[in-house]
Specification:
By secondary structure, the chain is α+β, with helices and mostly antiparallel strands. It has one domain (2-83): Glutaredoxin, CATH 3.40.30.10. It has helices at residues 19-30, 42-46, 71-83; strands spanning 2-8, 33-37, 55-58, 61-64. A 4-stranded mixed sheet has the order 2-1-3-4. The chain is globular.
């Protein structure tokens, strides 16, 4: 089963954080498959109700990407999502 992830970033908020690379690294370490989408239209991004960027939507749940200061924290969350 693939974990559905959307990366929400805003071009107006400074340089892009390498979120996709971090997610792919964590997914490899967690041994899980992920499907990543990076919506670019502001209307699509805003429907998730977050004003914090970057954010990620994991299987429909919005997370502030800064919650995952360490790769290990992201690995743990991905493993939990696959089980759930």
């Amino acid at each position: 089963m693939s974990i559905d992830i959307k990366i929400l970033q805003s071009a107006c908020c400074g340089p892009a954080v390498p979120v996709k690379e971090e997610i792919l690294k964590a997914a490899g370490l967690a041994g899980v498959e992920v499907s990543i989408d990076e919506p670019s239209e502001i209307q699509e991004i805003m429907k998730y109700g977050t004003l914090t960027f970057p954010s990620i939507v994991v299987n429909g749940e919005v997370h502030d990407f800064r919650e995952f200061e360490k790769t290990d924290e992201l690995v743990t969350m991905l493993r939990t999502q696959e089980v759930g």
